[in-house]
Every structure is written in structure tokens, then in C-alpha cells.
Amino acid sequence: MRNFLVRRILSGIVMLATLAVVGYALLRLGTSDIAQKIAGQSAGPAQVALVEEKLGLDRPMLVQFGDWFGALLTGDLGRSWFSGQLVSDTVLSRMSVTVTLAIGSVLLTAVFGVLLGALAATRRGWIDRAVQVLAVIGQAVPGFLLAVALVLVFAVQLDWFPATGYERFADSPVGWLRSVTLPIVALALGSLGGVAQQVRGSMLDVLGRDHVRTLRSRGLPEHRVVYRYVLRNAAGPALSVLGLQFVIILSAAVVVEQVFSIPGLGPVALTSTTQGDVPLVMGIVLVTGAMVIVVNLVVDVLQGVINPKVRLS
Amino acid sequence: MTTTLVTTIARRGSSGGLGRRLLRHPLGAPSLAVLAVIVIIAILSPWLAPMDPTATDVAKVFGGPDAEHVLGTDSAGRDVLSRLIVATAYSLAGGLLVALVAIVIGVTSGLIAGYFGGWMDAVSSWITALTMSLPGMVVLLAARAALGPSMWLSMAIFGAIISPTYYRVVYNSVRAVRSELFIDAARASGLTTTAIIGRHVLTAVRAPIVLLTAGMIAGGIGMMAALDFLGLGSASTPTWGQMLSEGFYQLTRAPLLVLWPALALGITMIALVLLGTAVRDELEGSASTRPRERSSWSAERSPEPAIVHAEPAATEPVLEIEHLAVAYPAGAGWTTVVHDADLTVRRGEVHGLIGESGSGKSQTAFAVLGLLAAGGRVVSGSIRFDGRELTSLDARAMNALRGSRIAYVPQEPMSNLDPAFTVGDQFTDPLRVVHGMSKQAAKEKALELFETVGIPDPERTFRAYPHQLSGGMAQRVLIAAAVSTEPELLIADEPTTALDVTVQAEVLDLLRDLRERVGMSVLIVTHSFGVVADICDHVSVMRSGAIVEQGPCRDVFATPQHEYTRKLFASVPQGEPRGALTEGGRP
Questions:
Q1: d(Cα A105, Cα A187) in Å, to the nearest integer?
Q2: Considering only CB atoms, which chain A residues are within 8 Å of B273?
Q3: Fewer CB atoms < 10 Å away: N or C end of chain B?
Q4: Buried b vs exposed e over A41-59: b needs ≥16 C-beta within 10 Å?
Q5: Where in chain A is the domain with CATH 1.10.3720.10?
Q6: What is the pairing mode between strands B489-493 and B406-409?
Q7: Cα–Cα dist B219/B98, whole Å
Q8: How many beta-carbon pairs under 8 angstroms link A with B?
Q9: Which one of B126, B133, B161 would you mutate to disrupt binding with A, by most A Cβ within 10 Å of its Cβ?
Q10: How far apart are CA B381 and CA B335, in angstroms?
Q11: How far is CA B366 from CA A233, B361, B391, B394, in A?
């Protein structure tokens, strides 16, 4: 297990480095007239030259890359070309909001996905059909459309939650909860059905296995057989799906944040990519990439906890 | 471009008969019909749109539905219906572009990597892992910054990002085909590499590709709408995403504006996903052919009565099975696996139930335990344990008997231990939960029993996971678990079949020993006369779900009367001692 983890961490670092090289090259070669954009459309050649000199854009590309990459190795993501702020400050403060949304919806998805999946597998009947309908909706209706629908019903019609905006937890815990509820639900609804279906499928598979019959032959009550033994055996595939959902939810969060005007990573990603703010875009790319790698690693470790065969080999 | 969808589905459908089956699927016909309408709207959109979708009318801003503007007008006085219709073509084209790019990249790379293997696959999976390490939206936004703001370019990149889905399917299929012998045969008969790939692989992956494509088009349309919603599309062409965004920000002034594009997008995507579901059902053959009402069970045939060797009744019966019939649902009716079986196990007796695999002997055993596989049912007859009818017992009462007074030893030791829990954990759990033992007492009991069944290092086995045990040790654990509550009746389903020949004799010795020590009766299911000769007092011979001959072992062995019993004897080498015969009837 330890060798496995070391290997995974090393491959994660290699992957991030590749991301950095390829991403920077593509972005830097793809942006033209960037100094003019930074200085503003009305700026004269002298001002543009000043900006170029200040940001070091007049130097050869390779030197610029070497500079940026060298700083990256020391953990310095540089400064935004447009705002001059430290990329790490911007990305980390925004990311905490996005990660809150993502973790909240993954947790919601996990709890209700497992519950619905287990009920669908053991009770069948209408719950089974409801899970299938949910899965189709989750797969077919994009997250932002669900978000719009939720706003229409719960914010505009019922006025239970604010339609847009974000309150910081430190300012008002209740206000914070109210402001993140609809976005989290919107994000979770998209994944819930798929996860429930996965749980249902693997539980049905496990329910038919020999060792379950043998446990039943020993007089264990059905609920203990299902919720202790079957669930544990079905947890592996469900966990993998949840890991994938985390990445999908990060994607959907960009748009959902836009719907609710939440100051997460999404709006910054939008403006920085539209402007061509290379250091900021690269900061976002690398930090999300690192986050996904960490999540995959956590999933692998948890798989080991669940499955002794993985852990002990 | 929009026509490709229709022709593709039509061509593939006619070639495989999938199309016809799809139309019969409850979801297939409606979703195909909806998609057909959408495709037609998209193709005819230049002529269908009643007005110029970009023509503004300042006098008619946020106009409600009227004769001229059926769905009203938007914030610039543009006709909503015309914009919706024109946007349909744009959305479908985007979805198809995504699917097309994904298919071209995924299928090609899958074929190459699968056929040539080695480093090609390593490179492919590394690139896949790289693209998967970022959320799709972040990749798209970054790519947009690097390569330019064209929506079509973004869609093509999205297609590339999701192409690994096709790659996996094609790659796995090629690997599977490659490992088949017929590739060598095909090569020997002079076919070229390309011809082999074309013939075998492309036929194998065609159906899954159709299935994936419905989802891909839906994903592409959704992603495109999301990008347009974010304001990243071109402002000159109307799109669903853009209309959604506008409607959303005008929610309070004109609530209907958000509804129309939401419906258009939702209906299109749901139709595509349902079509995918229908295709999958048809491919897997899992379409719900479940009839509303199943006919009630009736005996298919009454088997000839069993030949019974008479004997003086020695002890009282523990288990009495009379006229037992077990059936499983099949189509609109039933498949009967046990017909009219009679069997009595007396106190202290070892009763062998012998027959070929599929003869219904295990099903008889599971019926007694109340552990028939899903759907299986005792449709007729009675099972009495210690005078108590089991077939009408509720789940709770049955659970109280099972694992206490009736125990079970399974056939395949490795698959009958839960791989996720330690041996000790699953051994002691019923003792604690059902029989109220303390953790310590349960553990002591387990160690003591492990010792009894001949496990050399009980403490180590207790801590081990099942995959760390040998088959013989695992079977000893299961036997120990079964006798842990000193049951009156032990049902052993081929307890030695999966074991090495040397271990088989030891396990039989153990069972004989325990039977004397605990004083239990045993119903042992087997296909081996060696086992019967070794351990049984009585034997029942079963064939195709019916018992054909039964009686005391020595009588049946001395004078077998049914021709099937004689045939079973004839297939066993004569004069062999116990144990060594057990391989004989293994299917």
C-alpha cells in the first residue's frame, strides 16, 4: 500500500508538471497583443511598451517560461497581469468557496445516493423507479438548468432562500447556509441519480453472492446483512463513482456559481480566460488539477480501507 | 450535418434489427419520435422560423404571446419562437460535432492502441489520465483562452476530452478479440490485419458505440448551452443557452422567457438520454418484458413414484419433506426445479441426497433453509422441522430457527466467506447479535471451535481475511460456524466438492466426528457415491427434480432398483474405497 501511494503521488507530480509545461506553452503562444489589452485599448505605444517591460513580456518566450516555472517550483504562482494581485491569494480565497460547494454536494450525494440506492436494491418497487427517473434527470438536465428551476421555485415563488449572492460563514452562519443551500442542492441533484443507480447495481450484485446467503443461514437479521455486510462490499464501486462525481461537480460549479452570483473560482476562471491572464489561468488550472489528484488519492486510500485485498497486497 | 443522426440510426438499426426492437421498447418509440421532430425542425429551421430571429422591434419589448409573436418577444423585441427554432439547428450541430470528434479520436486511438498494444496503450492511458485530471469546464475555458473563442472549436475540444469513453470500449474489445484464437485462424487463412480488425472488432463495438453516442450528443448540447449561458458564445446567432441566460436575468419582468429555452433544452436532452436507455435495454436484453400478471403455478408433470426400500422406523423424524415442489418465475410462467419430492431425515441420521448437477438437490436444501435465490418459491408441498411447518413460517420465525437449530455448510468455501471482513469478525457477529454473547465469550467460542475442527493456528485464522486462507481451512471455518450453535439439523451442500482430494476425506471425518459429538442429523447434498458410502445412513437419489429411489444405504447399494441409480453406480469404478471416488460426477 505504501509503495502504491508513493507511486501515485509521484505520478501526480509528473502530471502537474506536464500540465504546467503544456498549459503554459499553449496559453502563452495563443495570446497576442496581451500588453495592449492590459494597458487598455486607448493606450499609446509608449504605455504598451512600459507594460511589456514591467511584466517582462518583451523577453524571449523561453526566458519568460523559465522564470515562471522556476517560481512555480518554489510554490510561487506569480501575479495576475491585469490586477497585479498574487495569483495564490486570488485562487485560494476563491477556491475555498468552490470547494465548500463541491464538498457539500458530494456529501449530500453520498448520503442520499447510498440511501436511495440501498432502498431501491432491497425494496424494489416505486423507489426503484424513482431512482431510475432521478438518474435520467441527472444525466439529461444540465446543472445550471436545475439551478434555474430551483431559483424559480424556492427563491422567486416561495422566497425560502435568496436567489443570488453569497454570505461568508464568518459574517453570518445562518446567512451562509441559506446562500449555499440552493447551489449545493442543484449540484447534488445532477449526481444523485447516477450514484444511487451505481449503489443499487452493486448492491443487487452483492445480494446475490454466496457469502450473503451463508450469513443469512446463520440467522442474522436482514437489516444487519444488508447494512453491514452488503453495503460494505458494494461501497468500492460507489466510492469510485463519487470520486468521478467530484470532478464533474467542479465543472458544473463554474456555471452554477454564475447562476447564483457566488464569488467562487468560476467567475475568476471566466474573466481570466476571456482576458488571457496567463498566470491566473495557469494558477486555476494547476490548483484544480492538484485538487483532483488529491481527491483521487483519497478515493484510493479509502478503497484500501474498505477492501482488505487492496490494503494487504 | 443534422441528417447524419437519422441516417446513422436508421442504417445501424436495419443492419442489426436493433431499430425494430427499439420501436417496441416503451421508451424507444416516443424518444425517437421526439428526436425526429427536433431533427426536422433543425433541418427546416430557415423556412420554419416565422420571422428573422435577429430583427429587433423596440416598440414590442417583452411582448406577451399574440397572433404575430406566438411565444412573445424578448428584451429587444425579437420573436422568441423564431429564435428557438433557429437555435435548434445550432444546438444539434454542436452536439453532433462533439460526438463526431469523440468517435473519430476515440475509435481510431482505441483500434491502434488495442491492436498494437504496449507503449501505445501506455501513452494513451497517460493522456487520458491527464485530461481527466481536470474538470472539463476548466479545460474548455483554458483552451478557449489559448486557441480562440470559436464555439465550434470549443465543441471540438470537448469532443476530444470525452473521447476516452469510446477509446475504452474499442480498446477493450480489440484486446478481447486479439486474445481469441480465431484471429490466428483468420490470419492463417490469409486475411490481412486490417480485414481482421474490420470484421471482428467493428462488429463487436458497433452497438455500444450507438449507445454511447446518444449520451455524447446530449452532453455536447448541454455543454454548449452552458458555455452560451456563461456568455461565451457569439452574440449574433440565437442559442438556447443565451436565451436561458437572458430569460434568467429578466425573471421578474418576463418569467416566461426562461421557460421556452429551458423546455427546448430539457426535452431534447431527456429524449436523447431515454433513447440511450432504450438502446442499452435492447442490447442487454433487459427490457422489461415482465408481464403484469404471472399465471399461477401448476404441476407440469407428476413424476413416477420413487422406489422406496422398506425399513423399520428407528428414531423420530427431524425433517419431513412431503410433495415438495420448488419453482422459479420464467417469462409469464414458472420453471419447476423440484417436483413432488418426499424425504425424511431421522434424528442422528446422515441422509445423502445424491444426483447430477441441476437435478434439484441443492434447491431442495435451500428450500428447507428458506434461502432460495431471488424469485424462487416453494409452490407446493410441506417441509416440517421437528413437527413444525416451515413453508408458512414468517421471516422472523424462520430466522430464529436458521443458524440456531438448522445450520448450513456451503459448497464453495472461498466465495462463502465475506471478503471484506476478518474471519473472526464474521464468525462471531451472529453469536453476538443473535445469541447475545459478549465479544470476549464469542471469541473464546470461536477459538475453541477452530481448534475442534483442526485449524492449526486458531488465533491467526481468527485475525485473517478470507483471501489469506486455503480452501480447506476456509471450509473448516464454515463448518465450525455451522456447528457453533449445536444445531439439530445440519444441511451440507456438497461440502467436499471444491476441496483437494486429500482434504475431502479429512472434512468428511470431521463431519462424522461432529455429528457424534453434537448428536445432530445431517442432510448432505452430493453428486458422489463415495461420499454417500463413506458417511451416509440413508440415501435419496434425485434426477431432474424428482426423487427416484431412496432407502438405507446398504440396501440401495446392494440392490439398486431404478435404472438411473444403476447407471450412477456403473459410472463409479467398483471396489474403490471411500473418498477417492469423489471426483467422479463433477460436471
A1: 6
A2: 136, 139-140
A3: C
A4: eebeeeebeebbeebebee
A5: 94-312
A6: parallel
A7: 8
A8: 217
A9: B133
A10: 16
A11: 23, 9, 12, 16
Cβ <8 Å between B415 and A210: yes
Contacts A156 to B, Cβ<8 Å: 251-252, 255
Kind and range of the H or E run holding A225: none
In this prediction, residue B10 carries a pLDDT of 38
Q: Residue type for B413, please?
A: P
pLDDT over 90 at B96, yes or no: yes
B585 pLDDT exceeds 50? Answer: no
- What's the CA gap between B254 and B64, in Å, rounded? 9
Characterise A159 by phi-psi region: left (phi > 0), alpha (psi -120 to 50), beta (else). left
For the entire predicted model, the pTM comes to: 0.79
**B478 to A224: CB separation less than 8 angstroms, yes or no:** no
Over pLDDT 70: what percentage of chain B?
A: 86
Amino acid at B501: V
Contacts of A254 in chain B (CB under 8 A): 135, 137-138, 141, 230
pLDDT tens digits for range B547-565: 888 888 888 888 888 888 8
B371 part of contact set with chain A, CB < 8 Å: yes
Higher-scoring residue by pLDDT: A184, B199: A184
Grade residue B572 by pLDDT with cuts at 50, 70 and 90.
low
State whether residue B478 sits within 8 Å of chain A by CB: yes
Strand B546-552 to B307-308 pairing: parallel
CA distance A263 to A249: 16
Give the closest-approach CA distance of A274 to chain B in angstroms: 6
Residue A77: partners with Cβ closer than 8 Å, 6 or more residues away = A71, A86, A87, A88, A91, A279, A282, A283, A286
Residue B258 is nearest to which of A148, A209, A222, comparing CB atoms?
Answer: A148
Residue B154 in grid coordinates: 470549443
Rounded to 10 degrees, the C-alpha dihedral A85/A88/A94/A98 comes to 160
Mutant choice from A31, A37, A106, A214 vs B, greatest count of B C-beta within 10 A: A214
* pLDDT tens sequence across B332-349: 788 888 888 888 888 888
| Long-range Cβ pairs for the range B384-391 (8 Å, 24+) | B384/B319, B384/B320, B384/B321, B384/B322, B385/B318, B385/B319, B385/B489, B386/B318, B386/B488
Instruction: List beta partners, residue B384.
Output: B320, B389
Cell 476456509 belongs to residue: B474
CA distances from B140 to B106, B248, B480 (A): 18, 24, 60
CATH code that applies to domain A94-312:
1.10.3720.10
A302 at B interface, C-beta within 8 A: no
Asked if B277's CB is within 8 angstroms of A141's CB, the reply is: no
Mean pLDDT, rounded, of chain A: 84
Give A42-100 pLDDT, tens digit per residue. 777 887 778 777 777 777 878 888 888 888 888 888 888 878 788 888 888 888 889 98
ipTM of model: 0.82
- Using an 8 Å CB-CB cutoff, list chain A residues near B224: none
Q: Are B25 and B278 in contact (CB under 8 A)?
A: yes
CB B238, CB B53: distance < 8 Å: yes
Please state whether B407 falls in left (phi above 0), alpha (psi between -120 and 50) or beta: beta
Task: List Cβ neighbours of A126 (8 Å cut-off, separation of 6 or more).
Answer: none
HEC string for B76-115: CCCEHHHHHHHHHHHHHHHHHHHHHHHHHHHHHHHHHHHH
Q: Do A291 and A99 form a contact (C-beta atoms < 8 A)? A: yes
Phi, psi of B109 (to 5 degrees): -65, -35
Mean local confidence (pLDDT), B521-534? 84
Q: How far is residue A214's CA from residue B202's CA, in Å, rounded to a whole number? A: 43
Give the number of C-alpha atoms closer than 13 A to the C-alpha of residue B492, restricted to the C-beta side.
38
